[in-house]
Each structure stands twice: as C-alpha cells, then as structure tokens.
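Complex 332.
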Amino acid sequence: MSLTAEHPQAKAPSAPTRGEMTQTALLLELEQVVETNLNRHLSAAKEWFPHSYVPWSQGADFDGPLGGTAWDVSQSRLNDTARTALILNLLTEDNLPSYHHEIAALYGRDGAWGTWVHRWTAEEGRHSIAIRDYLLTTRAVDPVELERARMTHMGAGYISPHTHHVLNSLAYVSFQELATRISHRNTGAYSGDKLCDQLLQKVANDENLHMVFYRNLLAAGFELSPDQAMRAVLDVVRGFQMPGAGVENFGRKSVQIAVAGIYNLRIHRDEVLAPVLRNVRAFERTDLGPAGEQAREELAGIMDELGAAACRFEEKLAARKAREQARGAVEA
Ligand SMILES: [Fe+2]
Ligand SMILES: [Fe+2]
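Predicted structure with fe (ii) ion bound:
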C-alpha cells in the first residue's frame, strides 16, 4: 500500500506520545499480517448466493403500481420481537456505504488493506440483499415502514468514533463483528421460522470470518505495541455502541431484544467481549508497561461492572417473569 503525505493518516489529529507508534507506522507494520489473513480468509470463505435462501414462491405483488395486496400484520408469521430484531439487523447492514467510507479512509484502498476493504464490503452487501428479499417475499414486515426507516437511518449516515486510530478501530470491529454474528444467529433461532434461521446462520458465518480477520489483526497490534493496544481496547469497551445505535427508537428496540435474549448485557460481556479479550490474552500478557497495566486494571473493573449489571438485569427479568406467571395462574 502507498502511504503518502495525502494518506488520511497524515491528518490524524493526535500525535503519539513517547514510545507509541504512529498511526502510519501501525498501518505499515500490520500490512503483512493483513496479507496473511486476507489469504486465510479467501481460502476459508465459501461462495454462497443470497437468492437461493429466499422463498420466492411465497411472494406476491404489493399494492401500488402493480395493483397487488397491501401489507397487513396478519400476513407476518413472525412475532413483534422477531420483526424488531430483523429490522434492526437489516438497517444496520443497510448503512454499509458509510462503513465502507470509514474503513477505506482509515485503512486505505491500496495493497492488501485495500483488497480486504473491497472484499469485506462485497460480502457485507450480500447481507442486506438476502435479508430484505426474505422479509419482503414472506411479508414478514411492513415494507413501507421498512423503507422509510432505511431512508431515515441512511440519511443520518454513520461516523466512526475511531476514524483516526488504527488499534481502536481494530478493537471495535473485532467486537462488533462478533456481536453482529451473535445477534443474527440468535434472531434466526428466536424467529421460529426455519427459512429465517437458515438464512441468518449463513449471514452469521460471514460475520464470524470477519471477526477472525479483525481479531487476528488486533492480536498482531498487541504484539507490536502492547500498551497502546491495551489502551485502545479499554477505550472501545468503555464506550461501546453497536453501529445500529442511530436507528430510530433504538432504546425501545434494544430493550425488547434484550428481554427476548437475542442480545443483552450478559451476551455482550460473556459471548462478545470476553472471548476476544481471551484470544488476545489481554489478562495474561506479561509485556505491558505501567500505562498498559493501568489500562488493563481499568478494563478488568469495567468487565466486573458489566457482570454486575448483567446480574441485575437477569434478576429483574426473573422477577418480571414470576409476576407474569402468577398473574396467568390467577386469571386461569
Ligand atoms: Fe453483515
Ligand atoms: Fe461482517
């Protein structure tokens, strides 16, 4: 890759403190690792076709120019929570142009980084194509509401808080790809619809390979500059937000999804943060300086807080279920 004066990293806002690698140096040092992992990815990824996962025979024209039937909720075989999760997952995938812009600006469009950026974008593009086709063909969601939500969400765009920081960005996408994998997989299982589950498992497989790519890069970042990498992980874990956080009514939607066990604090801590931290040996490293040690201590504190918050959520949920069951018994 060419890292010339006009490379975006040349405009990175913060100068490295003493002993830290510059953003440009990190990108250059990691390029060989990118190439190795790109090749690993290309040999592991299996070609698949979104159209073959969509039950086209179940489709019918909608009202409008074609004079078909208007959508009605009675046509959907999914419950409200499954619809909410699928819409949130799809809108998140829809914002791909913004994500592409963010990673192309940071990693560049040349060499192995560039090849990865374009390949990743092409694979991600498959996800919204497949999910939208499935939802519209099976009349699972209101197509007008879905399109309006897409316009609003994409109209706002997405700006990464890690635009100028290679290690922060790698930490973020490692967690985010794993979070997306789990969210798709759990949505499919929750939906109770075999076709939905089959499609989302396929999408989740892609997300898993993306996670492995970024996580291996993050691990390499730890080898290059352990203190800097630990600080980056701490910053990302502390302020983590899913890329779909800008979707309208995200708060209400995420509570619904949390209660259903599709994605909540427990899953975030135990199935997303912890496995990545284990893989990069965040809590076992012996190569940290004082700054890295301090960041690790703070990180351990945040993991404990998240664990406690997850317990509180589970207790509340159990109490709520018990109340509902008691009410059901009285009514019966
Ligand atoms: Fe995706
Ligand atoms: Fe992905």
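Residues 93, 124, 127, 180, 207 surround fe (ii) ion (ligand 1) (CB under 6 Å).
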